[in-house]
Structure formats: C-alpha cells, structure tokens
Design brief:
heterodimer, A: 275 residues, alpha/beta, Rossmann fold, 5-stranded parallel β-sheet, 10 helices, 44% helix, globular, B: 311 residues, 2 domains, 12 helices, 14 strands, 19% strand, binds thiamine diphosphate, binds magnesium ion
C-alpha cells in the first residue's frame, strides 16, 4: 500500500466537502493528512469494531478545526460512508459540523477550542496506566496552538507522570491565521522547549511522507519513562501549489476553477507517488 | 439597504481616534482578520499587540497596559474571550478596575455550523455576574460608532459583544444616542419587545408586521445591558399588557433574566423570554438557527400573537 498516494485520494474528499459545504480549514487539513493516515492505517489499533471498548488506542485532534481531514480518514476506516459526510457537512441540522463532535462515530471528545487536547490526552494516558492497559494515546496539535499556556501545563504533567504511553504530534506547518508563526508569536527552538519539559523529541523532516512518520511512531513506541513529541515539518496546503504555504488558505473556500485545479493536481501528484 | 459589519466600524473609529491619541492600543490573539483589525495593525503598528493564540495572556497584558495609562481594546472571538479569559476578566480587569475594553467578536451563533465550541451563549450571564464591568451589545453601525467613541472616554472596564455578519441599518446618520440609555425605537400599547444586538432588527420587523394585524408593539433597544437602563424599561413596560425579550443567548442570566428581575420588583408584568435553548444548538448558519428557534421576525410575531391570546 502506498500511503502517500492514498493520502491524495483523501485530499480529494476534503476538497469535495469544503467546496460543497462552503467552509472549512483546508490548509491545515492538507498539512495533517499523512499524519492522520499513518496513525489510523499503520500505527493505532482503532477501528469501528473496537471503538468504544476499553483497550483500543486513543486519538485526539486538538487542532479540531481540521476535522474535514479526520472525517475523510474515519470514513476510509469504515466508521461511516464518505458520501454521507459530503452530503451533510456544515448543512442545516447535521452532526457533521466544523469541529470534532462525539456524536460522530470514532470521535473521543468535542473540540474546537485550541489548547485543550494535550490535557485530555494526559488524563487518558494516566487512566491507561491505572487500568494496566497497554493502549497508547495520540494527540495532534497545530504549531500556532502551542501559544496556549494550557499546552505547557499539560506538557509538565505528562513528563511528571512519566507518560511513555503518550505521543504528541505537532503539525509544524509554520503558519497560523494571521501569517507566519514566527511573526505572530515566534517559537524557534521548539525541540529544545519540549526537551526541557522532559519530553523525548523526534524531528520528522518531511512530515508529509508516511514512511518517515511511521518510523518516528515506531521509535516513540519504544521510548520508556518519558512522553514523546513528534515534530512533523509539514507544508500547509500540501498537495496543490495554489494553496501551499499561503496563509490565506487557512480557511479559504476554493472557487470552481481553483477546485478543479487542485483536484487535477492531486491526481498528478498521486500518480507521481508510484514512480 | 446598507449592510455593514460592526467589527469594521470599531476598526474605522479606532483608526480615526488613534491619529490623535497615542494611548489607544489594540490587542489580538491571531484574530486580527476576524476582528477586521488588520487595517489598524497596518496603520498603527506601534499601537498594535499580537499575542498569538493565548487568550488568557491577552487579557492580562491588556490589564497591565491599562494600569500604566494605555487604553487597550482587546479583540478576540467572544466564545474564547468570555470563557477562556474569564478569570483574567474577573480579577485583572473588573476587580482591579483597569480600563480594558473587551470586544467579543463573532458573538452568539455567528460561527453557525462550527459548533458549540465557537458559540458564545453564556457570556452575558457569566460576565454580568462580575461586579465592576459594563456590558454592551450594539445593533448597527451608527450605534457601534457611538459606543466606540463613548468607550474611549469612559474609564470603566467593559465587554462589548458584536456579531460577525454585516447587519442592516437601524438608525441613521446623526442620530443622537445617549450614554447608558436604551433607545425607544417604536412606541406601542399592547406589548413591549426588549432587545439588544442582532435581535433588534428582527424584533423591529416583527413589530411592523404586528401593526398590520392591529397589534401595537413597542420596541426598546437595550444596547446597555449593564448598567441596565431600568428607567426606560419600566417606563416602556408600564404602558403595555405584557413584555417580550428576545436575545441571542442561553435562557439563563441574559437579557430575559435581567428584565424579569427589574419588572417583578418595580412593575410586575408577564414576561416572555425568547432565546436559544438550554441544549446543544442545532447546526446551521446564524439565519437558519434564528429561524429554527423562532428568533426571526416571523417567529417573534407568532410568539407575540400566542402570548396575547393567552392573556
Ligand atoms: C482557543 C482558541 N483560540 C482561537 C481559535 C481560532 N483559531 C482556529 S484555527 C486557528 C489557527 C491555528 O493555527 P495552527 O495551530 O498553526 O493550526 P494549523 O496551521 O494546523 O491550521 C485559530 C487562531 C480557536 N479555535 N481556539
Ligand atoms: Mg500551523
């Protein structure tokens, strides 16, 4: 299975949702896609069959505005039909709203307000230890999100409690709504910040490559005594040059022309994955 | 019909005033675009502070600036500003009496289908329970402009909630608003509708629809929720059979509760409070949500007709 190629199929699903639902956070959906695909298809033991039991792994999308990418991945995992999402996303009366919502199968916790996810993940990782369960907890945060103080309160607690069953991923796309993260609130030395809080840090230079991410997740699994953070260097809007690295694509809805262009570029790049 | 978003008016007014007032400072938390404050940031980079996605820090910094003579305007989505920074609002602004103006943008259900995390339907209840802070909900560009200028003179901390969408004019240029005094938009003898913010327009339209059916409804724009203009409220209520409040808020602790508390003491009347429900709000655009819960003109009209039949 070529997971990078597969990610392009899911990018198309996301573009369909956003184009027809007339809203969504396309830039961050595109940067986080390989992270989600790798977790759900290669790393975590979460499926519609075991979801809701006590011993599956746990996942939290703390950058909850990128729910469209998660809808695409959960649909591909068989939690619900993708057509149901495309038909209902953001429509009147739907449960497929613009942020994580526990009414949707496969979602653990409601979200949308940045900075909450890591604390909830710490609680889940503590519970797994208390219950003697082998399940692992994964949480994905945005880089802009790291400005929230709560993230660092949770980071402190995670290393204090030696939560080696906890793995955080930072979608390091270097953009947030108002522009470059470094201009809005700079966070250079991001790796050193985390290691000084007692975390193991794994840098992934190409965070839009599933194999690189997979190797990092395997290393994280073998870490003992400390929580792990994977800093995935990604490209916001990855998949189409019209939106790559462009801040205003944080939540832009493509025009018909842009939509067609991105769909055909996804296809071309997908084919290039096999070469 | 002119349609202008109140957020754009606040920016324009602050730009105008900042030309002669170096103490005006605008603070944002990765929210300058949604607050329409990019133009201010570009015009007065030295009077603009970006804190990143950190709403607690945002309000604390503003309190420090105010303590040292600045006039900070904090602009962040109402949902995060009123909830995430609640303790900073309580202690650093209200209890400490610092001149911080908190502008809650995209208030109420402005964010529609983004869901409950992005709605602010408990902000009035939460903030009005803190002593020492004022609360305002303007309804159009003229009232917003008046309010922004007034807030620049007033030194008390205040929370202002505005919506995201462009709204039609209710007033006209040159209208003379009075500080902390509600505006009687329409007189009436059967019913009084008390409203604020984005429910003013549908209530006003409802009153006009009712007039065609021979029902006389007064409309009072209570843009100043705290201090509530009790005098105008009692005056308006004393001449009618019953009172209706309409608000973009939970049924608890908002305009309806405030109005009921005053009238039960000073002018007992039946009060019907129309609001969003005490349950997760249906997903949709704000217009769809208003319609679904009967907060649009037709819905308000129907509730009033039912109420009058029951009396
Ligand atoms: C507490 C909170 N404040 C503000 C927002 C509004 N908001 C949504 S997305 C976003 C930018 C997020 O940037 P980043 O974390 O870098 O995410 P990404 O680039 O992956 O989209 C902001 C400020 C929010 N959802 N929650
Ligand atoms: Mg980012």
């Amino acid at each position: 299975m070529n997971y990078n190629a597969f990610s392009y199929d899911l990018r198309k699903d996301v573009a369909d949702m956003i184009y027809s639902g007339k809203g969504g956070h396309i830039g961050g959906d595109m940067s986080v896609m390989e992270i989600l695909v790798t977790l759900y298809f290669r790393v975590m033991n979460i499926s519609p069959d075991n979801f809701g039991s006590t011993d599956h792994d746990r996942f939290i999308l703390s950058k909850g505005h990128c729910i469209e990418a998660l809808y695409a991945v959960l649909a591909a995992k068989g939690f619900f039909p993708i057509d149901e999402v495309k038909k209902n996303y953001l429509r009147f009366g739907t449960e497929f709203i613009g942020h994580p919502n526990v009414k949707i199968p496969g979602i653990e916790i409601n979200g949308g307000s940045l900075g909450h996810g890591l604390s909830v993940a710490v609680g889940m990782a503590l519970a797994a230890k208390m219950n003697g369960s082998g399940s692992r907890v994964y949480v994905v945060m945005g880089d802009g999100e790291l400005a929230e103080g709560q993230v660092w309160e949770a980071a402190m607690a995670a290393s204090h409690y030696h939560l080696d069953n906890l793995c955080a991923v930072i979608d390091r796309n270097r953009l947030q709504i108002s522009g470059s993260t470094e201009e809005v609130m700079h966070q250079e030395n991001i790796a050193r910040r985390w290691s000084s809080f007692g975390w193991r840090v794994i840098d992934v230079e190409n965070g839009n490559d599933s194999d690189s991410l997979y190797r990092a997740f395997m290393r994280a699994k073998n870490n003992r005594f400390r929580p792990t953070v994977i800093i995935a260097e990604t490209v916001k809007g990855y998949g189409s040059k019209i939106m790559e690295n462009k801040a205003d694509w944080h939540h832009r809805v493509p025009t018909e022309k842009e939509y067609r262009e991105m769909i055909s570029e996804f296809q071309k790049r997908k084919e290039a994955c096999w070469e | 019909m002119n349609m202008t978003a109140d957020r754009a008016v606040i920016c324009k007014t602050l730009i105008e005033r900042a030309k002669t007032d170096r103490d005006i400072v605008v603070l944002c938390s990765d929210s300058r675009g949604s607050a329409s404050m990019s133009a201010f940031a570009e015009s007065f980079p030295e009077q603009f502070i970006e804190v990143g996605i950190a709403e607690q820090n945002l309000v604390g910094i503003a309190a420090g600036l105010a303590k040292c003579g600045k006039k900070p305007f904090v602009c962040s989505p109402a949902c995060f500003l009123s909830a995430r920074s609640y303790e900073q609002i309580k202690i650093d602004c209200a209890y400490s009496g610092t001149n911080v103006k908190l502008v809650g943008i995209s208030g109420g259900v402005s964010y529609g289908a983004l869901g409950m995390s992005h709605h602010s339907l408990s902000d009035i209840a939460a903030i009005s329970a803190i002593p020492g802070i004022k609360i305002y909900l303007p309804s159009d560009r003229f009232e917003t402009e008046f309010l922004t200028n007034f807030l620049l003179e007033d030194t008390a901390p205040a929370y202002i909630r505005i919506g995201r969408n462009p709204v039609p004019d209710i007033y006209s240029a040159g209208y003379k608003f009075e500080k902390d005094k509600a505006v009687k938009l329409k007189s009436g003898s059967d019913i009084a509708i008390i409203v604020c913010g984005e429910t003013v327009k549908p209530a006003y339209d409802a009153a006009n629809l009712l007039e065609r059916e021979g029902i006389s409804a007064a409309v009072l724009d209570m843009y100043c929720l705290k201090p509530l203009d009790e005098k105008s409220l009692i005056e308006t209520a004393s001449g009618v059979k019953a009172v209706v409040t309409v608000e973009e808020h939970s049924p608890y602790g908002g305009l309806g509760s405030m109005v009921s508390a005053v009238l039960s003491k000073s002018c007992p009347k039946k009060v019907l409070s129309l609001s969003l429900p005490d349950s997760p709000v249906i997903s949709g655009s704000s217009a769809e949500i208003f319609r679904y819960y009967g907060l649009d003109a037709e819905g308000i009209k129907a509730s009033i007709i039912r109420l009058l039949e029951e009396l």
